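Notebook entry, cofactor series.
This is the third protein in the set we're modelling with a bound small molecule. For this one the ligand is zinc ion. I'm keeping the input format identical across the series so the outputs can be compared line by line later. Sequence and SMILES below, as received.
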Amino acid sequence: MEKKYGSFDSWEIVNDSIIIKTTDLSLFKHNGSGIPKQSKWFWNVDKILPENKIPLTLIFNRKKYGAYIEVDKTKFQRARLFWYSDLGSIFRKTYPFYGRENSSYPLMRFRKLNSNIYEISLIDMVYDTDFIVNFESQKEGKIIKSQSIRYERDPHLRSQAIKIHGLSCMACGFNFFETYGELGKGFIHVHHINPLSSSKEHFVNPEIDLTVLCPNCHSMVHRNKNHILTVEELRMLIKK
Ligand SMILES: [Zn+2]
Ligand SMILES: [Zn+2]
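Returned structure with ligand:
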């Protein structure tokens, strides 16, 4: 099947390893969701026969859970993804207000680790841009650096960066929801890699030019005023 990216129903295929579902009440209630036919290639189910179940492993908060995809026997061959009630009840506990009027639902991000193992994270799109410290503003190269801050704060780029890179620090792995619970939902800093090169192009690709860091790691990559560290360089410095 032809690989297609983009939005289909309430799903967005971001790239070869990331797919995002905009959740709703039904997903929380029924422990799963239909998956659009355009995404069958992503889940490697374009060749499965109706009524066959393809087992999957889902990883949530570092624990493994069972799940499966099945295709119905109608001529539409609709595919659906289900997880078992152990994971379902964890999701419901994580979002206890689901089902209430005007309650907002998180995005569910699936990161493919291999063809049948996916890591799930729940993403609340909370814009904490006021909390982003002006690391760069007082230093040399003001224009370039304030441009970089602008990219880190741009709500659209920010949400794209979080969809692609998730909510765990790319340097140390810290996740605010895992540590702070409800209060930490949706919190992370977005960092603009290589502000010099991309300021020339005036185009920021959130997949390549942006990454996500916890405030500690974000401060550390900017600490040396003459050299913004790469995420890899910082990772090498972190003492285990
Ligand atoms: Zn970190
Ligand atoms: Zn930064």
